[in-house]
Specification:
CATH class of the domain at 44-256: Alpha Beta
Shape: globular
Low-confidence stretches: 333-343
Helix content: 40-55%
Strand content: 5-15%
Order of helices and strands: HEHEHEHEEHEHEHHEHHHH
Oligomer: single chain
Structural class: alpha/beta
Largest sheet: 8 strands, mixed
CATH architecture of the domain at 44-256: Alpha-Beta Complex
Number of helices: 12
Number of strands: 8
Length: 410
Amino acid sequence: MDFITIVFLVYIFITLYFLFLFLLIYFQNKQKFFYYPRAKKNYSLSIVVPCYNEEENIGGTIEALLNSGYKNLKKIIVVDDCSTDNSYKIIKEYAAKYSKVMAVQTPKNTGKAAGAKNYGAKFVKTELIGFTDADSYPLKGSVTKMIGFFNDSQVGAITSTVLVKNRNKFIEKLQAIEYKVIKFSRKLLEFIDSIYVTPGPLAIYRKTAFEDVGGFDENNLTEDIEITWNLQVHDWKVKMCVPSRVYTIAPDRIKDWLNQRNRWNMGGLQTIFKYKKNFLKKKGMLGIFILPFFILSWVLGLFGIFILVYRIAREVIVDYLSTKYSIGTQTAILTLREINLTPHVIIFLGLTLFLMGLFFTLIALSNVKEKGYKQVGVFTLGFYMIFYLLIYPVILIISLTKFLKRKKTW
């Protein structure tokens, strides 16, 4: 058995291990998946909305928050990061119409969501502080369902179910599947206290916890990942409210999608290096699970693409040389006695991995019931499983290259 085959078998084993682990967590906690506690007090809440050139979406986001249904929502602080379109004008119109809406503008463009978020946080005087992206739309009742988790004084942040709003283009439909799988996986991680991100479309923090970690890191490309790890380091719990839903606008062009994924990956790398000293330390789950899991995901992704390319290249080269030799010597490439119908163990394991991944994805999709959206088609799901997921290792390589070259741009 050659070295590459051994590496491939190890890769298959680790991947199957985590698939089985997540499925076991799901079946053990299935009854609690959609649970959320009722709030024991009427927490005061302000929501900050960072905005840059979102004239098409910001009005809808403000209206969604105004109609959120949470009675003790004191302020919606919309922070314009010196937009070059009509965003700030629209924000000021809403502020003039609704007393709950506050329009503020940064002194100069910060160039990142974290900068606008931290600026808006300065105006918050409430017990809780929430954040919503300028192109995201929380459903009515979503904010209210999240609040009860703060009954536990150790809970520092609550995240929600993020779903794709726009699903006309094929790439949008693929992301709609991906977001559902991410949502499913994130809730599973909550059961082992290992949520690693509180996404921007809708997250709520205890104000004292937010201040305890110093707000968002403005040097990190994924401030929502970094602050979650920071909360873990400071012994704050992070929870997820599955019934709380927010719909967000996903990239509708390949270029924008690639830029977004590169930013996510590079921000993840920044966070890994920032908290590397916590690796395998037993203080909370950051060191003993989240960091190792993140690093292992990168290693598996990179090894996966190299193994795939190696095996394909090897087969092509061997077939080419065999054919060339056969033609040159006028001998048969393959005789009947050399045909072996016994399935190769690697093919069997690869097929097992694919089927387990498909099973996991189908469970994730079945846990999201939506009105107004069609069911995922067989072709779309097949493309997602076979091609869409295979693109990720390539993006990892691009992101790693940019990170090493220090091209850290929003």
